[in-house]
Amino acid sequence: MAQEPILSARGLVKRYGKVTALDNADFDLYPGEILAVIGDNGAGKSSLIKAISGAVHPDEGEIKLEGKPVSFRSPIEARKAGIETVYQNLALSPALSIADNMFLGREIRKPGVMGSIFRSLDRPAMEKFARDKLSELGLMTIQNINQAVETLSGGQRQGVAVARAAAFGSKVIILDEPTAALGVKESRRVLELILDVRSRGIPIVLISHNMPHVFEVADRIHIHRLGRRLTVINPKDYSMSDAVAFMTGAKAPEPLAA
Amino acid sequence: MSEPQAAKTPHLEYEKVLSGSSTQVAQFDTNDKTPIQKFQHFLHGSPAAVPLIVLLLSVIVFGSILGTKFFSAFSLTLILQQVAITGIIGAAQTLVILTAGIDLSVGAIMVLSSVVMGQFAIHYGIPTPLAILCGFAVGAICGLINGFLIARVKLPPFIVTLGMWQIVLASNFLYSANETIRSQDLAANAQLLQFFGDSVRFGGAVLTYGVIAMVLLVALLWYVLNSTAWGRHLYAVGDDPDAAELAGVNVKKMLMSVYTLSGIICALGGWALIGRIGSVSPTAGQFANIESITAVVIGGLSLFGGRGSILGMLFGALIVGVFQLGLRLIGTDPQWTYMLIGLLIIAAVAIDQWIRKVAG
């Protein structure tokens, strides 16, 4: 690939006491692609994701966003830099409305005195924006944007969380097990949604245990094993059982070309 | 999510069933609800409705039993006067309980603040407005200590405020040497301290400034909770602190500010307490913490945080006031009041659990 990676990491090390979760791990995400990250439980996959999303600070190594070195002390900093993470628990507040959730932590205030002195929220503007973003992603048969999130189904909640991540001009979206808790039908909708987000030019890191889903939507698959990147494969060149064999160490991949 | 395409061409073996399934995209509003479900949804959307209905019913019941003895402007405003302190302290308690915390020290902070205001003004000869400010500062500091121990040291709110309750109450008795400052002394030297006891009259209706302060405070906090980012964050923190943190809310800062504000509101309650009883007494308001929690729970706020309206708390406090006055006018043993309030508390929590099932 001739392109520069939009997000890359080199030589990440993270130790928890005697356990080495990340052992010189590398990572590359190119513009406009869906990169799946797979690995066995305990392979250090979540530590890798936490390191690039700012949830943990790696002991060693370097992370670059658009070629510039970055160092995040919190997910909030990563988000400010344009890395949005949709966590497995979605980070939604169940009792708040869809609109309130989309703007949680970045509310819009009314113009003028009402906003500056009385700190009043600009509800109509927030609702309109939320409605527009959900419609863009084809999620808009939501009649009531003020509905509490807890009254939505799992897939709808995932939709709101993804829409929130995609709505605020982000450069990278990380999705952690987006289909893990969903039924077949809802998983299908979420996969469509992921492809839709990519078609808007936002690259996606997809962490998933579901091989059929990974092989269906990913452009490249990053296989993590024993705390480092074992290889990156093209899903068109390998089968699912190959990928599982690499993951578990049953088979060794050819040396990494990139 | 272009649904039709997905449904027409199943990508994977196990998704074949999809072609036969509904092709409707994310459906949000289902209309086939029974009236009970609709009612449940209505209550879910308007958490202050249950206490309001109970309040209106109890006013009607007592009014029809007692007639004009109860149903007069004087009696009804008397209820307001009697719940003013509970309402103000309940407002502080509401903020804390919305964050899924609890503040057992509210009553103690209120009394200590009132004692500081009185002692500073009368014994140290500090100008009354300044003494009142000192009382507010004491309330804020107590709240800040609560907030620090809960947010930074990560101790459970119940334990922290249980400890602070004892500490603040003991400081109050040690500092004041259990001495009451008489009403005459206040009237002569620090009239401003009794401000909230003054009243305006409309015919038979007597509204003390304490009542007006309570109503304005609840109205202000209602606005803050519903229409500002701080208010929305408070709900989010109570709902799911981890989710709020990941979504970009500074949870620690929120908790610190909530407990500090609670302390400041308690100081306001302390000032209003002086107006209510006329004197400064270190033994007053012993049960304000329990009364405020009662008002909050009957008001339909969830002790698990994130749910309910501050208006509910006000209705809850008024329900207690209506029962107290109504039963006293009927002439029953006061224990019946406590028994009914106990039943109301349990009923309120049961209803809260039922309403929450909407989510499932």
UniProtKB/TrEMBL annotation, chain A:
Protein name: ATP-binding cassette domain-containing protein
GO molecular function annotation: ATP binding
Entry keyword ATP-binding: yes
Gene3D superfamilies recorded: P-loop containing nucleotide triphosphate hydrolases
Stored Pfam families: ABC_tran
Keywords: ATP-binding, Nucleotide-binding
Domain ABC transporter: 7-251
UniProtKB/TrEMBL annotation, chain B:
Name of the protein in question: ABC transporter permease
Pfam family, one: BPD_transp_2
Entry membrane topology: Multi-pass membrane protein
Regions that span the bilayer: 48-67, 73-92, 104-124, 130-151, 158-177, 202-225, 254-274, 311-330, 336-355
Keyword Cell membrane: yes
Subcellular location(s) of the protein: Cell membrane
The keyword Membrane is assigned to this record: yes
Keyword field: Cell membrane, Membrane, Transmembrane, Transmembrane helix
Lineage top rank: taxon: Bacteria
